[in-house]
């Protein structure tokens, strides 16, 4: 239930040349741990997340998710892998305005072919885990920004992923609500046993993660344990 990137290089066309976004990257994220990915804008954080999510195939190297090497997998197999083994939390929740909080989660199970009754039960369990049982029948416009982000996190865990990729989850929240969201991600990572990668610019909460990796111009610096920087 871990995430491994080995010798990953990713380039993009840049006029008549190619721009290197990731340069020979190695990253190991064990199950039940959080790796914080930090670095300036344009350093390669988004590219690394996209590769880890199998949304982009690297030029070279391997991405292994819960023991499955994604190299050479067909498009349909990668889609299935993302649906069943990868959870993604974006900066903006992007909830469907017509659906209730519980339905936001249930639709993920529907895509995976699960029975409606079982999906409802699992959705309610996750809403309880994020402290929103009482908001299950409310729609996004009836919820605060912090509550919508909590639903976003719960939705990402609906299909019990092995890997959780989190992109700046507190960027639209104040300090207090942001801290609560990071505490929630930490708790759920340990409880669900996910291999979590957290991209953040907010260094004030990095003591809650297991390791910190800095990226600059596509190069990863050696991971350091939180609290030992």
Automatic annotation (TrEMBL):
Q: Which Pfam families match?
A: ABC_tran (PF00005)
Q: Which GO terms describe its molecular function?
A: ATP binding; ATP hydrolysis activity; transmembrane transporter activity
Q: Which Gene3D superfamilies match?
A: P-loop containing nucleotide triphosphate hydrolases
Q: Which GO terms describe its cellular component?
A: plasma membrane
The UniProt entry, under CDD domains, shows:
ABC_MJ0796_LolCDE_FtsE
The answer to whether the entry has keyword ATP-binding is yes
Q: Which UniProt keywords apply?
A: ATP-binding, Nucleotide-binding, Transport
Q: Where is the ABC transporter domain?
A: 3-229
Q: Which InterPro entries match?
A: AAA+_ATPase, ABC_transporter-like_ATP-bd, ABC_transporter-like_CS, ABC_transpr_LolD-like, MacB-like_ATP-bd, P-loop_NTPase
* Protein name from the UniProt record: Putative ABC transport system ATP-binding protein
Q: What organism, scientifically named, is this protein from?
A: Blastococcus aggregatus
